[in-house]
Structure formats: structure tokens, C-alpha cells
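Hi all, posting the design record for the shared folder.

TITLE: backbone redesign
STEP: 1 of 1
STRUCTURE INPUT:
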């Protein structure tokens, strides 16, 4: 016997629209409403008058209503014809609106662009690029998200972002375009102590920048005692400026401080900044424009 408890409930079929009307025929009807006669409407449309009449007769059959009635030698809209004519004008108008929006989207001058940035890109690398983008494409709405590299890549892969500027690495499904490489240097207020005996302020554990720094310090035989972590390089710089810790910073950040000394003559690591996009993402002129502006911005630093 069939188990009724396991029987799936029947799903009712989805009701499909009964009308099957093309935009070309609706365009014909709209023009007939605009012009005094069928002959003049046909001339504007670039079709013969018999072809126009036949197309509208087919429309009447598909709709199941009479759209016109004779008024002497002229044809006048019926009430149903007026209703369909108003609908045609609205549909054709909205179709033109959609076409304009798609044209603007293809040109990269409209829509929403969701951009992910690591802290460094927000604080000093790309503010000029973001400002230039907004000034040159005022109709594009820019949404900026600031997070760590892994979080940005997760959101990019999950279709929550359109592109992301982050620390370069390989990630399946994502492609990286190199933008620039930052050198990372050790800074301190009074670099007279043993590097292994002082407190350090570094990027967070698990971040890609931290991994680069730890590898560079390890090459120098330094196992840092980390007392403070932050993704914000300005916070790390301030901790070093007041003498609470040594730190590792991009040269663009550390060199701005007159109270810090560069401990070693050479950088301890190099951090690549890349533009990440999905492998299968379609070409987007807005993303291309952002990449060009980013390259110009970092070249001027």
C-alpha cells in the first residue's frame, strides 16, 4: 500500500500570460494612435499600408477584441482599442527606457559598482582614484567595502562585490591583475634594543600581510613578541610613535612620521596590491576605468 505520509503534495502549474504580443506590433498601434490616418502611420513606420492593416488585424485576432470601428472612410479606436493603445504607448516607452539604461550600462556610465578595499587602499593608496572615478562617472553609484583580503575575496566569490583591491594571492575562480608592490619596513622610536626583547604592533594574525611580515622577520632571525594588532597602518604607526612597540609599515606610512626611525636599511617584505575579479565576470568598462585610475594614483605616490 502506498504510504500517504510520504506522498508529495501536488504543485500547481505556474500560470503563464495568455497574451503573446510583440513590441513591433505594439509600436505599430502606438503610431496609428499618433497619426491622423493609417496611410500616414505606415509612412512614418516605413511599411506599406496593407502590411500595417494586416499586422493590426492579426493583433485583433490574438487579443480576441475589435480594436477599430469604421467612421465613414476612417477607422476609430473602440474602447478596447483605446485600452490597448494606452498599453502599447506605455510598453514602447518603457522599452526605450530599458534600451537607454542598457546603453548606459554598456558604456560604463550608469549602475552600481561594488568595490572592496583593504585598509591601505582606503587610507593612502587609492582615495584619489575613487574621487576621480566619482567625478568622471557621476551617474554610477559607488559602494565601497573595507575589509581584510580573505573577507573581500569571499564576498567577491559570493557575488557581493564586483571587484576588490587586496593583497595578491591565488584564489580559485578569481583572477588577479597586479597594480603595485609596496615595500614593508621596520620602524621604531628608539631602535637600540634587541628586536626579540621588545613589544611589536603588527597586522592581525592570519592576515596575508602578517604572513609576509613574519616570513621576512624570520629570515632575519627575529621572533616578534606581538603585544598589539590592527589592520589599520595608522594605528600601528601611532603605537610606534609613542614608544609602545616596534612595527612594520609600508614606506608610504612610516616615512610620514618624523618621530620614527627605520630600523633596517632594507625592507623586510614586499606586499603586492592586486585588482581581483571573478574569472567568469563579463567585461565591464567601469571596472576597466577603476583599474586605470588606480594605476595612475599609485604612480603618483
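Okay, here is what came back for every position:
SEQUENCE:
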Amino acid at each position: 500500500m502506498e504510504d500517504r505520509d510520504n506522498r508529495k503534495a501536488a504543485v500547481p502549474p505556474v500560470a503563464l500570460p495568455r497574451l503573446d504580443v510583440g513590441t513591433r506590433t505594439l509600436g505599430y498601434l502606438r503610431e496609428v494612435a499618433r497619426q491622423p490616418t493609417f496611410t500616414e502611420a505606415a509612412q512614418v513606420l516605413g511599411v506599406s499600408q496593407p502590411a500595417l492593416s494586416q499586422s493590426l488585424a492579426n493583433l485583433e485576432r490574438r487579443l480576441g477584441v475589435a480594436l477599430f470601428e469604421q467612421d465613414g472612410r476612417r477607422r476609430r479606436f473602440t474602447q478596447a482599442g483605446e485600452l490597448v493603445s494606452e498599453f502599447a504607448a506605455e510598453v514602447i516607452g518603457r522599452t526605450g527606457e530599458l534600451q537607454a539604461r542598457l546603453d548606459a550600462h554598456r558604456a560604463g556610465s550608469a549602475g552600481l559598482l561594488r568595490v572592496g578595499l583593504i585598509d591601505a587602499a582606503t587610507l593612502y593608496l587609492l582615495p584619489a582614484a575613487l574621487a576621480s572615478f566619482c567625478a568622471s562617472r557621476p551617474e554610477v553609484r559607488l559602494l565601497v567595502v573595507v575589509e581584510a583580503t580573505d573577507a573581500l575575496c569571499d564576498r567577491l566569490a559570493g557575488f557581493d562585490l564586483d571587484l576588490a583591491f587586496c593583497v595578491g594571492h591565488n584564489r580559485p575562480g578569481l583572477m588577479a591583475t597586479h597594480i603595485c608592490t609596496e615595500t614593508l619596513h621596520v620602524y621604531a622610536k628608539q631602535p637600540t634594543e634587541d628586536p626579540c626583547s621588545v613589544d611589536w604592533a603588527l597586522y592581525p594574525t592570519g592576515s596575508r600581510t602578517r604572513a609576509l611580515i613574519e616570513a621576512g622577520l624570520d629570515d632575519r632571525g627575529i621572533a616578534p613578541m606581538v603585544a598589539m594588532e590592527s589592520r589599520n597602518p595608522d594605528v600601528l604607526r601611532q603605537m610606534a610613535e609613542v614608544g609602545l612597540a616596534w612595527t612594520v609599515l609600508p614606506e608610504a606610512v612610516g616615512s610620514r612620521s618624523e618621530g620614527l626611525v627605520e630600523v633596517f636599511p632594507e625592507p623586510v617584505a614586499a606586499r603586492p596590491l592586486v585588482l581581483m575579479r571573478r574569472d567568469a565576470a563579463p567585461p565591464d568598462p567601469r571596472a576597466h576605468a577603476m583599474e586605470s585610475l588606480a594605476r595612475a594614483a599609485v604612480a603618483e605616490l
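COMMENT: The first strand starts at residue 68 and ends at 71.
Let me know if anyone wants the other runs.
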